[in-house]
Design a protein that fits this description.
Layout (H helix, E strand, L loop, with lengths): L3 H4 L4 H9 L15 E4 L2 E4 L30 H15 L4 E5 L5 H4 L1 H9 L4 E5 L2 H14 L5 E4 L11 E5 L10 E7 L10 H10 E9 L4 H9 L3 E5 L12 E4 L4 H15 L3 E5 L3 H14 L3 E4 L6 H9 L5 E4 L12 E6 L8 H8 L13 E5 L4 H20 L1
Parallel strand pairs: 3-8, 3-9, 4-6, 4-7, 5-6, 7-8, 10-15, 11-13, 11-14, 12-13, 14-15
Antiparallel strand pairs: 1-2
Helix pairs in contact: 3-5, 12-13
Length: 403
Amino acid sequence: MIDSKRVGAQPLLFYLIIYMNEFVCKKCGNTDLLFVGFKNGKPYCRKCISMQGEKAQKIPLSKGSVKFELPYELTSEQSNISNKVLASFKKRKNVLIHAVCGAGKTEIVFETIKYAIENGLQVGFAIPRREVVQEIYSRLKRAFPLNNVIAVYGGNTSVLTGDIIVLTTHQIYRYPSYFDLLILDEIDAFPFKDDELLYNMFVRSVKGNYVMMSATPDANIIKQLRENECEIFELKTRFHHMPIPEPSMMFVIGFLKYFVLLKKLKKFIANAKKVIIFVPTIEKSISVFRIVSRFISGGNYVNSKVKNSSHIINEFKANKYSYLVSTSILERGITIKSLQVIVVDADDAIFDEYSLIQIAGRVGRSKDETYGEVIFLANKENDAMRNALATIKECNEHLQSVF
């Protein structure tokens, strides 16, 4: 039954028409009448109304040989999963790659990307955050130098077609029934996680099959994928076969935490280490940077409201800054040599078990420098911190049992 109080002021006749015809938004699949409006007597979907813009034109892709260049040779474990992913794609099976942070998930799908391009198939690589899109775009452009690799994200939509399209999940609406192979990384990350609209857009853009990837998928995601007969491949070791740095917990109440923060930061910088100081909120990123910069120069801060965040991150990689204060925008996808991590207010509710694991996973990713420090600076210990540490220890114990 349609509740006239819930649907608001729109004429009930229109809602009855929609109800009888089982209204389904062609763009996002919405069927909820609460998100249906009317203009000039015609219904429209309010759920995806903000996603306006040019749709990508379908262009024929020619078959041909593909050359890709890896920055390192795949391990036997990586090669094994790479072969399984390719075999699954050939059988038109969907895949989840569940691999620890620093396992080399991106490189594992290169053979499948190569096969798709060789057969004239359209490849997409979607990530929730634009900072990671830019990182993956650079890696794919280096890896596939003979192919047209493009990046699509807010403010960068002038070119929409290419052999490999790297894009934010918000831009998927431009590609209905478009991709023969769509790779979705960081499936548990904001804003994709728990966003039905973005998930529906993702599903509707896949003409062929998808490969999902994550270091921290929760039990519900895994259960749902198993029910959909998705093949799941696990990789519990990093590509360099060294353990994930285990976080140390430091409990300091109030303003005293800044004395500890400054002491640790000075030590890291004196040893020529780069440091990311993670904080829970945008406001905190500004306030912590203001305090720290009074005592230690050579830093900057980034968050989703800083317009030139990508430029600042690139300068950090190029050694212009020795430290960055950051919100969770840098918790995934970024690889920086000699990186150390300090999490301020690690007991804040915004840091769940999975985000803390991802943050710890930023450290020790380089083959030349596999170790580093991860510090959880908090008022008190909580379940998220305990569970993150337990999960990391479990992965490291698996490593010891294998090698």
